[in-house]
Specification:
- With about 250 residues, the chain is of the alpha+beta class.
- The protein has a single domain, classed as Aminopeptidase.
- Strands 1, 2, 3, 4, 5, 6, 7, 8 and 9 form a 9-stranded mixed beta sheet that branches.
- It starts with a strand and ends with a strand.
């Protein structure tokens, strides 16, 4: 497979095609307020931490974002329960205050619609590890969104994260399996990695479901159900992720 992976700093002309790449993210996930606030800033302010994959025809087939941050400071020495949201907040706080980073966190690895199952995600992860090393760091942490968990929204993440295959002992989840094969170690669960809140009308728009009964609502692409408060008019989705640590 002829795939070229470069940083956005090296090829800034790929920014437009990268954003135009069709992907498989479910609608409601894109309404995490931290994502709204910071994803664009990674591209604008940290292009050396953005990877773009193109095929032999020059079409963008994958993207990967990461952020540098300081973890060896008071209040941060443990990987946070807040996962994805928390590292984004810490990274841009560090950038604003001029705090020297000592580690890099993965934020996203996304493969273009129709290009899944071709090994591109593994190539992107390997390229991210290489880029982290090139930038002078020796560790990459990743709040991993286990891809197959959406098929079992009621399963407890503390059990799911450590579930393995009998044949080879590798993780049951395919995306966790890619990380472990690449040398990553599953370290802990991030139970509140991403939070999406919205009115019931918003949730109806995002999912096509009625959201008219108080309780847990299973939604397509959700790793856990959405908590619906029908009488109060809102729904809350709190997504767990799995912390994986890579030494590069």
């Amino acid at each position: 497979m002829d795939i070229e992976i470069t940083t956005l700093a090296e090829r800034p002309e790929l920014q437009g095609p990268m954003w135009q790449m069709l992907d498989t993210w479910v609608e409601f996930v894109t309404h995490d307020p931290i994502a709204w606030a910071y994803i664009g800033r990674i591209v604008g302010e940290l292009p050396e931490y953005v990877l773009v994959a193109t095929d032999a025809e020059g079409e963008v087939v994958g993207r990967a974002f990461s952020v540098p941050l300081a973890m060896d400071v008071d209040g941060r020495r443990d990987l946070p329960a807040g996962g994805w949201d928390q590292v984004m907040l810490w990274a841009f706080s560090d950038l604003r205050h001029g705090r020297k980073p000592d580690i890099v966190s993965a934020i996203e690895i996304t493969v273009a619609t129709g290009r899944q199952g071709q090994g591109i995600s593994g190539l992107m992860l390997a390229a991210m590890r290489d880029n982290v090393r090139r930038l002078g760091f020796d560790e990459l942490i990743a709040p991993v969104r286990p891809s197959a968990k959406s098929a079992e929204p009621l399963a407890l993440i503390d059990e799911y994260a450590y579930r393995t295959r009998e044949a080879d002992g590798l993780p049951h989840d395919p995306w966790l399996r890619v990380h472990v094969r690449a040398g990553g170690v599953i370290e802990k669960v991030a139970p509140t990695s991403m939070t999406v809140t919205g009115s019931l009308d918003q949730w109806r728009t995002w999912t096509g479901l009625a959201f008219d009964t108080t309780g847990q609502v299973e939604v397509e692409g959700g790793l856990v159900p959405v908590h619906c408060e029908a009488e109060r008019g809102y729904g809350v989705y709190v997504e767990p992720n799995v912390w994986v640590r890579h030494r590069v």
